Amino acid sequence: MANAPKLLGIVNVSSPNGIASDGRGQIFIDNASYANTVEVVSDSTYQVEESLHVGSGPASVAYDPVDGDIFVLNAGSSNLSVISASSLRTVRNVSVPGMGSGSYESIAVDNTSGVVFVDDYSSSNVSMISPSSYSVLSTDYFGGSVYPTALAYDYARNETFVASAPSTNLTILSGPRYDQQTQVPIGAQPISLAYDPQLSAMIVGTLRGEVCVVSDVSNAVVSRFNVSNFTDALIYDPGTRELVATAAASESTPGEVVFLSPANGTVLATVSVSTYPDQLAYDNASDSIWVGSIYASQVEAVSDGSPEYAVTFESVDLPIGIPWSVTLGRVVQTARGSQTIFAVVNGTYDFTLAPIEYWKAAPFNGTIIVEGSSVSRTIDWTRTAWAVMFFSSGLPTGQAWYVLLNGSLNRSTGNSMNFEEGNGSYSYMVTPATPGWNSNRSQGILLVAGGPVNISLGWSRATYLVTFEEVGLPAEANWSVLVGGVSLSSDNSTIDVYEPNGTTTYEIAARPGWIPADYSGSVLVQGRPVAVTIPWSAATVVLTIQADGLPSGTGWSASLGGKTVATSSSSLQFTLANGTYDLIVHAPSGYTASPTNATIMVVGQPKALTVDFTVAPTPLPQQSRPSTFLGLPLLTGAVSLGAILALVVAGFAVAFYRVRRPWPPGSREATSDGVEGSSAPPNQSAPSAVQPASGVPEYPPR
To answer: Which of 96, 24, 110 shows the shortest CA–CA distance to 62?
Structure first.
């Protein structure tokens, strides 16, 4: 250890229960209090910059370097919150089967595939989470007395190590689905794990302060050493290649961060920290160790003792007293003299010089690599040229663009480009690397006159005319096309739209009575106008004429639009385009049709017409008749009339004879005075009528 570790800063968090670093200056600390949040802390200012809400009872947090996500295990809500480390937004919540509310929950991440492993003490299981679908791939249920308390991933052998405090064994999960289990006897209760790639071994911390080194080749304990008190947390520091452990006598006493040699357990250094430290995380951006204690309600940053080396920037030709600044990594230093010196550990650092009016720095920016020794960089300042900066906006991220200035062609994929030019007038040209983009300043002339020049470039997609032309629709017919989610209509034959380079899809809106050749399609725009022809044709519909009243098999027909269709069935059909037609129905002999004539109008919809057929009345035969009299042949009628007249005459004669005949004596009508007389003689009844010989009753006259 080159330098003694020391306390760097303190962050107050009410209930820290897990710590993770994204390696870019952000520390994520879950807050298990009623707030249910994850606090985002700067590793340089030690201040909380964001507070992100997660599930209930966050118990552990880990960083996935593959996808740049932060995983938070929520014991209270039995799920996993996935946070984007770049946007600091929760992107997903994943339910974890069997999640309980035990005192131990931890996460391990495969830093090559991104698979996330979570364990739960109370339900005695370990689940695997897919980094792409955020779904549970599988769950290993241990059962019995194997209650997981810590997880660690061995990326050299693709194995997951599971510590179980109630037992004295270490469980190794292997195989394609991590469903193969190997038990390694430890002899003590394991509660913390850390993988050491230098030793190809898993370092196991135990409750009684003993640390075991387990070879991932032999799956056996190869060495042991003691750390005073409990060893609740354990990590491997890749910067110093040392082991870092927490140690505490009880939950109410101050603890220590212990720096150890993994090979033999030699204590290299200790740093006193707050009450009962039980969490550790390594931040490679600052080469520091972050220590948490849920009992002390705070998190402390401790330097790991990595050796530091001087990086010296030497200013040349800039007058003393003019301030100049350098940003190295994330640290900014300003000087008024000829030097500024940074103290850094091994690593690769980007640097940038702040621009100074009327001066230019060479180099203006660059990269410095520190590998076990100090580094110096000379910055030459000149006043003969000025910074000419082009600032770009509107292009997609990573899109290249070019500027030709004074015969020098520069390329950039960012949002700025720097030239250095002396006083004078210069022409420039701006072009994109990919055709199809326009700049608000494609060319121009700039003037450098004793100071820097800034030119802003705004980019927009170049668009080209796409003309859709319909063929076949009636004049002034309205039609529509959907392009890029926008519906465009026209009552003439063309519709114009402007589209960028590439393939553009379109859809033709339906129109009653008419059919386009295709309802959808695509058009390829390649830096020039494009015409698309949309042929239309009239839609045809079916007219069905139904015959009612005809006997089965009787033939009949109809004429429409110059076409006659005959049938002996109960219906016939015409296929028609839109329009107006005259219909004539031809009835079979002996029948009449209703209607016989009709006007049919077709407007894009099928039509039907019923014709009623009825039997026609039969007319009398048209022929000559013989002469008749009294409805009889002439001779017969005359004879009959004569007979009738003879009978009439005879009847009158008989009547006359009866009137003149006297009544018998003694009748009342025969009295001389006309008074009613006596009745008939004794023993003889008076007749009621006289029966003539003909048998026709004849009544006496009054």
So the answer is: 110
